[in-house]
Amino acid sequence: MEWFDRRGGARVNPEWIVYSPSVIFTVATLIRLKSNPGDAVVTFCPMYDAFFGAIRGNGRVLVPVSLSSAMDDYQIDWDGLERACTDPLAKVFLLTNPHNPTGKVFTKAELQRIASICAETNTFDIIIGEVPYTPITEVTEKNTALACSSSKTFNTAGLIGSYAFFPEKGLREEFLFELKQRNALSSTSILGMY
Fold first, then answer.
1. pLDDT digit string, tens, across residues 164-179
2. Mind giving me the DSSP string for 27-89?
3. By the number of CB atoms within 10 A of the CB, which of 47, 120, 143, 166 ranks highest?
4. Does the predicted model carry a pTM greater than 0.85?
5. Mean pLDDT rounded to a whole number for the chain
């Protein structure tokens, strides 16, 4: 909570916070919780390569929305995003912020428009992010989750530790059941926590 407040002035409710062994574990679990096999996951391309496995390995269909070139500051194809999210099979929108691999930091206005499209189309937002940036929880607390770790910023992937924010209590409880009961991950890595 202090990190988000100190680095970006964002507020985080302590009740939202859960631990996880990795961001990709969190993403894969949320994909299973918020969609069914055969449903679609929308994400911007290019995309982080681990997303392929998290999406396709869980029997979901990848729906890419292209960002423009670096010369155009990786602008969002808003029509393409809206079209992709309007598909009845699109249940999840997956976003890294800053974007991986481009490094684009989405503005608060862009996040508000993304959240609005997802709300209108009932598409669940999974946001992976680090600071400094505007966390999606500053824009909306509904139908969204934010997954984070120090692994990108501080190169600590080997310490096995990440955390996520779940503003909605029901989803938080579903995730913790999946984590602790179905996967027997009942405690965090001590070194990762520190």
1. 889 999 999 999 999 9
2. HHHHHHHH--TT-EEEEEES--THHHHHHHTTT-EEEEEEB--GGGTT-B-HHHHHHHHHSTT
3. 166
4. no
5. 86
